[in-house]
């Protein structure tokens, strides 16, 4: 039977009590946000006639998401990460800080404290000899085209099976994770392996939510970046390797036209030797443009829970 009780004074008074409006302590902002959130959910229960079975199944699902630390995986799937990016883009526009390489989502798989190298490094531990060798390079510049020497370029990506070190126990510590400080010309260079795309674990609570929406949980092959330098706006971004079937069908909504990079396969002994490589490789070039800012709060990444962040900082 359909009943509508949301707009009754009893329910409205009850909401005020639940949100702590009649209590002196606590946070005013928390009270207002929780009141709004609960009001929207109470109304939703009324409007959709949510049954007790549906409600408790959802609580069970949320417990499973928490147990598996999967909220950080579901959040991009539900578009929250991209929505926050859209808001930050709009804030940059309003501040006159638009321009430069676009941001895109961080994702939940960064690990703080990766080894730091000057100008050039190798990111893979050499244990995966079947993978395609990647030569990843680029120049960091400001929006006037001047090279930024000494910029911190943090890079992390999956292996050829789509797994990330630290979260995938089969990989060595910090495999495919490095921080490179750009040289005098603002350049960074890294030997690594071509990453694969990956999907949310089959049958996981995140997968079940996406399947209920008729969606998949796949991501195209990509490489994550944090780039920072004094006097410049911190940039969180990713590049997508062109040609992946999921390029424009990323469950996490991270793809941006400007961040699509075509790898160039090179099978030339002299070119390989010039980079200290032994055989054929794929060169991936990603140049980065940073906007300038004097505001210190814009020069570093925003706070969020990150693996080993406390230990490293
Ligand atoms: Fe990723």
Summary of the model, kept short:
Helix content is 28%, strand content 21%. It is an alpha/beta fold.
Explain this structure to me?
- By secondary structure, the protein is of the alpha/beta class.
- Helices cover about 30% and strands about 20% of the residues.
- The protein is globular and about 80 Å long.
- The termini are far apart.
- The protein binds fe (ii) ion (FE2).
- The site of fe (ii) ion has 4 residues, from strand 9.
How are the SSEs ordered, and which strands pair?
Layout: H1 9-18, H2 28-47, H3 52-67, H4 71-77, H5 80-95, E1 116-118, E2 120-122, E3 133-142, E4 152-157, E5 177-181, E6 187-193, E7 198-199, H6 205-212, E8 218-219, E9 222-228, E10 235-241, E11 260-261, E12 264-266, H7 269-274, E13 281-285, E14 288-290, H8 309-312
Parallel strand pairs: 1-5, 2-6, 3-13, 3-14, 10-11
Antiparallel strand pairs: 3-6, 4-5, 4-9, 7-8, 9-10, 12-13
The structure holds fe (ii) ion.
Fe (ii) ion (FE2) binds at residues 107, 109, 222, 224.
Contiguous uncertain segments of 5+ residues? none
Q: Give the overall average pLDDT.
A: 96
N-to-C series of helices and strands: HHHHHEEEEEEEHEEEEEHEEH
Shape: globular
Strand line-up across the major sheet: 1-5-4-9-10-11
How big a fraction of the residues is strand?
Answer: 15-25%
Instruction: Give the cofactors and ligands.
Output: fe (ii) ion
Q: Strand pairing plus helix content: what structural class?
A: alpha/beta
The overall strand count is: 14
Assign a percent range to the helix content. 25-40%
Our measurement of the CA-to-CA distance between the termini, rounded to an integer number of angstroms, reads 56 Å
Largest β sheet strand count, sense and barrel closure: 6 strands, mixed
Question: Measured on Cα atoms, how large is the radius of gyration?
Answer: 23 Å
Tally the helices: what do you get? Answer: 8
């Amino acid at each position: 039977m359909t009943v509508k009780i949301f707009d009754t004074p009893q329910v409205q008074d009850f909401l005020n009590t639940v949100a702590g409006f009649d209590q002196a302590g606590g946070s005013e902002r928390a009270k207002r946000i929780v009141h709004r959130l609960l009001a929207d959910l109470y109304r939703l229960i009324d409007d959709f006639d949510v049954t007790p079975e549906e409600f408790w199944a959802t609580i069970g699902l949320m417990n499973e998401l928490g147990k598996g630390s999967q909220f950080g995986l579901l959040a991009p799937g539900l578009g929250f990460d991209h929505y926050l990016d859209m808001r930050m883009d709009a804030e940059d526009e309003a501040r006159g800080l638009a321009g430069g390489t676009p941001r895109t989502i961080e994702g939940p798989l960064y690990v703080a404290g990766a080894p730091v190298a000057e100008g050039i490094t190798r990111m893979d531990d050499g244990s995966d000899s079947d993978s395609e060798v990647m030569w990843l390079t680029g120049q960091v510049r400001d929006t006037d085209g001047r090279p930024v020497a000494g910029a911190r370029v943090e890079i992390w990506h999956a292996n050829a099976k789509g797994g990330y070190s630290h979260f995938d126990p089969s990989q060595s510590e910090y495999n495919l994770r490095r921080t490179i400080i750009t040289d005098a010309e603002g350049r960074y260079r890294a030997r690594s392996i071509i990453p694969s795309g990956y999907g949310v674990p089959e049958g996981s609570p995140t997968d079940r939510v996406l399947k209920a929406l008729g969606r998949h949980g796949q991501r195209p092959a990509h490489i994550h970046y944090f780039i920072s330098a004094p006097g410049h706006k911190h940039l969180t971004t990713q590049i997508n390797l062109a040609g992946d079937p999921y390029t424009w069908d990323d469950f996490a909504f991270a793809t941006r036209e400007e961040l699509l990079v075509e790898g160039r396969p090179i099978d030339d002994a002299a070119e390989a030797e010039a980079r200290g490589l032994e055989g054929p490789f794929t060169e991936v070039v990603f140049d980065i443009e940073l906007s300038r800012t004097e505001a210190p709060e814009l020069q570093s990444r925003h706070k969020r829970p990150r693996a080993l962040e406390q230990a490293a900082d």
